[in-house]
C-alpha cells in the first residue's frame, strides 16, 4: 500500500514534468536562420534578429539561391532575403509548421506598409498542411516498439529467434505505417521505400532496446526501456515543433533517443530527399544494434548459467 501511495504520485509528477515543462517553454533557442543579400543591406536585418537574444543562430548567405539550398539541405529552417524590392521571408513548413508560423510572427515585420512576402520553399503535404499525421506517428511507433519488445520477452523467445521476431515485427509495422500515413492519408510525399524503412528502423530501435534490457535485467528491463523511450523520448522528440524550439538540453537529448531521431529521419526522407538523414539514421541504427546485441548476449549468458548449474 505504501509503495502504491508513494510511487503513483511520483510517476505522475515525472510524467507532468516530462510532457508539460518542454511544452510550456516552447520558443526558439538558437534556431538556425539564414540572412541573404549584400552585407550592407542585411546588416540592419541581422541586427533586428540578434535583438531576440538567444533565439536565432544566424547564417549568412550571398543570395536567395544559396539560402534556398540551405533550407533544402536542412541547414536552416528559413531565411530573410534582402532584395531591391524589399525583404522576403523563406520558410519550410515541411521542416516544422510551428517554426514556419513562428518565423512569420517574429521576422515578417511590415515593410513600407505592406506585409513581408513569404515563400514556403519546402511545403508540407497538401493533405496534411499542419504536419499532424507525422507528429502523431511518433507515439504509435514508440508503443509498437515497446509492445514488440515486451511480447518477445514474455513469450520467452531468445537469441536468434528473438532477433528474427523483432526485425520481422519492425518490418511489418513500418510497411503498415507507411501505407496508412503515406498512401491513405497522403501525409508523406517522398519515396515510399525510404519512408517505410525509416518507420521500421524507428520501431526496431525501440523494440530492440526494450528486449535487450529485458534480456540483461529480466522483466524490470521492460519497464526501464519503456520509461526511457516513452517518458523521455516522446516529449523530448520535438516532433510537434523542432528540437531547437525546446529548452536546453531537452532538444539535444531528444535527438539521442529513438522517437526524436525517428521523427527527424522521417521528415528528411519524406520532404527533403534524404538531406540531414545521416545523423538520425545512425542514432537509430546504434539503438537497434546495441539492443539486438544485448538480446544475443542475454541469451548466451542464460545458456552458460544453465550449463554450469548441476
Automatic annotation (TrEMBL):
Q: Which GO terms describe its molecular function?
A: ABC-type transporter activity
Highest taxon, organism lineage: Bacteria
Output a single Gene Ontology CC term carried by this record.
membrane
Q: In its UniProt entry, what is this protein called?
A: ABC transporter permease
Chief location category: membrane
Tell me which UniProt keywords the record has, alphabetically. Answer: Membrane, Signal, Transmembrane, Transmembrane helix
Is ATP-binding one of the keywords?
no
Query: Where in the cell does this protein reside?
Result: Membrane
Query: Where do the TM regions start and end?
Result: 138-157, 164-185, 197-217, 224-242, 284-301
Q: Where is the signal peptide?
A: 1-20
Amino acid at each position: 500500500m505504501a509503495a502504491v501511495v508513494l510511487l503513483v504520485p511520483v510517476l505522475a509528477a515525472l510524467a507532468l514534468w516530462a510532457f508539460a515543462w518542454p511544452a510550456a517553454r516552447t520558443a526558439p533557442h538558437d534556431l538556425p536562420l539564414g540572412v541573404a543579400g549584400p552585407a550592407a543591406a542585411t546588416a540592419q536585418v541581422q541586427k533586428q534578429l540578434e535583438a531576440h537574444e538567444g533565439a536565432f543562430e544566424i547564417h549568412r548567405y550571398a543570395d536567395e539561391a544559396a539560402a534556398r539550398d540551405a533550407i533544402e539541405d536542412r541547414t536552416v529552417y528559413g531565411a530573410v532575403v534582402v532584395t531591391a524590392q524589399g525583404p522576403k521571408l523563406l520558410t519550410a513548413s515541411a521542416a516544422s509548421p510551428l517554426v514556419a508560423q513562428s518565423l512569420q510572427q517574429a521576422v515578417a515585420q511590415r515593410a513600407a506598409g505592406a506585409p513581408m512576402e513569404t515563400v514556403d520553399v519546402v511545403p508540407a503535404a497538401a493533405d496534411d498542411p499542419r504536419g499532424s499525421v507525422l507528429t502523431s506517428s511518433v507515439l504509435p511507433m514508440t508503443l509498437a516498439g515497446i509492445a514488440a519488445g515486451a511480447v518477445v520477452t514474455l513469450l520467452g523467445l531468445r537469441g536468434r529467434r528473438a532477433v528474427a521476431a523483432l526485425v520481422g515485427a519492425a518490418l511489418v509495422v513500418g510497411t503498415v505505417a507507411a501505407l496508412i500515413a503515406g498512401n491513405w492519408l497522403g501525409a508523406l510525399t517522398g519515396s515510399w521505400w525510404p519512408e517505410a524503412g525509416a518507420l521500421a528502423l524507428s520501431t526496431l530501435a525501440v523494440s530492440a532496446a526494450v528486449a535487450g534490457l529485458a534480456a540483461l535485467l529480466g522483466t524490470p528491463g521492460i519497464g526501464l526501456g519503456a520509461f526511457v523511450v516513452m517518458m523521455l523520448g516522446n516529449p523530448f522528440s520535438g516532433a510537434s515543433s523542432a528540437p531547437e524550439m525546446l529548452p536546453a538540453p531537452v532538444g539535444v537529448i531528444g535527438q539521442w533517443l529513438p522517437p526524436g531521431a525517428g521523427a527527424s529521419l522521417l521528415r528528411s526522407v519524406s520532404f527533403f530527399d534524404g538531406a540531414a538523414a545521416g545523423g538520425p539514421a545512425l542514432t537509430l541504427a546504434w539503438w537497434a544494434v546495441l539492443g539486438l546485441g544485448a538480446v544475443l548476449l542475454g541469451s548466451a549468458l542464460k545458456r552458460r548459467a544453465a550449463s554450469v548449474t548441476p
